[in-house]
TrEMBL record:
This is Diacylglycerol kinase. The keyword Transferase applies. The keyword Kinase applies. Keywords: Kinase, Transferase. It comes from Paracoccus marinaquae.
Amino acid sequence: MPETATRRNAMPDTPFDLSRRRLCVILNLGSGRKDGREFAETLGKALKPRCAGFDLRQTPRGSDLVEMAQQAVADGFDIIVAAGGDGTQSAIAGALTGTEAIMGILPGGTFNYFARDLGVGESLEDALDTIREARVERIDIGLIENLVFLNNVSLGAYPHILKTRETIYRRWGRSRVAAYWSVLVALRRLRRPMVLTARLEGEARQFTTALLFVARSAYQLESFGLDGVEAVRNGQFAVLIARARKPLPLLRSALRLAFGFSAQDSDFDLIVTDELTIETPKKRLLIAHDGEKTVMASPLHLQVRQGALQVLLPADGTNKTRDAGG
């Protein structure tokens, strides 16, 4: 079984028969650079003959995803496949959490941390193979207030990096180079750190920092060379709080992360927990979650919800991402 960021809760050992299930693909046309018509034809050929029922629903607006997933559940589909990037996966996971619907993953974004974490495959063909020959498992998810997240939540510098990234994407298109460039541009504009209180298990800890990063992706932490991987695999958060308060030292840390070099553990304080509350003097905060942005009110309560989401994984237990060299 592949090691992943999410602690697994195995379903009963019974065969998963796709031919007895109704499947709905929800395609976010705003993710990545896919040709919607060609993509839809590929999915239809690959999945329609294998299911008891098949439908493909498309939208260019990420704001439609939650309602579309909820409607697919109400329409009686057993499997809801999220086709898009991490933001798409997170939105649809939020709609399916706590239901009996099963989530499939077709990665189509820039980084695809969730798909990599679960080992379902980065290429379309590998991810389709996972759906066609799958097993079902329950996984843990993160909650910030009532919002589901799969990879990370952050406060401080990173939400503003996302704002800058959107501007750069509009001008230059989506790419990893553009994503990394947005880090440099945003951090150049950093002016002052934030003051926050982290409350967990009755203890209050004060921090002055430019960045707080709550991780639920072991794959992402491994990519960044940071501690907390085992904690995440054990169903907890790895909460990383940057020690740097000024632009230049924070920029050094961000550059190491952005360009794939190992970060230094001395750059961050690490808190391991499955539940905490974050409070700041500022009452409304811009929060980044799985590549998206939301304004939320302080204090913020975060918790791990165990076994809350059913997902399709490779039936033979292989990690298609790592087997492919990802």
